[in-house]
Amino acid sequence: MLKIKKLSAKIGDKQILKNVNIELPAGKCLLVTGQNGAGKSTLLHAIMGRSDIKTTGTISLEKTALHKLECHERAQAGVFLAHQAPPTIDGVNTMTLFKEVQKAQSLDITTGDLIKKVKALTEDFALPTDWSKRSFNSGASGGERKKGELMQAKVLLDKTKLLLLDEPDSGLEQSSRKKIVKLINDTCNAGGSVMLVTHDKELQKLYQDNKLDLSNVE
Amino acid sequence: MSNNVRVYSNFENVDFWCNPSSLDAVEDFTFIFIQTEGKCTANINVNPNANSKSKVHVYIYAEGSAEVDCVCTLNVDKQNSGVNTDIQFRSWPFDRSKIKARPEMFISNSDIIATHGNALGGLRPEEEYYLSSRGIDNFKEAIKQSLLSYA
Hints:
heterodimer, A: Rossmann fold, five-stranded parallel sheet, four-stranded antiparallel sheet, 7 helices, 11 strands, globular, B: mainly beta, four-stranded parallel sheet
């Protein structure tokens, strides 16, 4: 269960969120909507713990007080953010990133199995065959970056208690939408919760029963 | 795309000459220096053939009180028209280490394309945030392991 109480968030002097309250049970997906600038992405980054977002209020995931933790500790506690615009990290190759994540998050998988899993997912997502050997996101298109995020979410599925998806569909071909839906369903079925920010009407339709419209939050 | 990767860990002196000759695909040359102690002086000389296309990547990691002084020199003679070469440095000096990274170009022909870039410093804030969001807080180790993985 994710519980957010009276969450306000500022970036610099700009107030982005004010008094947001959310209760999201395990196994459920919350659709987050709102106009541009309403604070949808800021909400996800505030939960993840981006350091330039100053927050007040509380964020709890099960018994963990996330708001008291650093960003990397929140990730280790089971929060996964699929970034809207993941950066290129020159010099850090993709497979090493996976191995460092394996170490940092004490994943219950051997390095050999991790390599096999990444290889299989690279094929499944139709990413270039040398994907895992490249510097992270080097030469990647917007769609390939998004696929890379979904791939990581799949690898960390067993560990994820809260999946934050920030416009996972943008830049992706139509057929990949099914992969997003499957990821959401798999996460929920494994007892995790999902927060989804999307402008995709089809995806919105699927999850509109449980919706937070940030345009209506004061 | 071909790729020639060379990793130098705690070397004192490195001298390397490469002659890009590929006319079709871009020929990649990657040089990685991982210095955890002492001083390394490196000279990379790039002498491309006419009409060749190449990219040279130089990654330098230094920690502790290690020092790296690296020059990558592009030489294009008068007769070598049509050369297209890009040299890119990325260096991470951690702790008290020092890195000097210098791309140099000696060009005697106006019918070529030669570009270079040189980035030196820690990770950018968005890179650090990204790695943190994956549970990683030891950025230095992540970079070091990544560069070692080329070996």
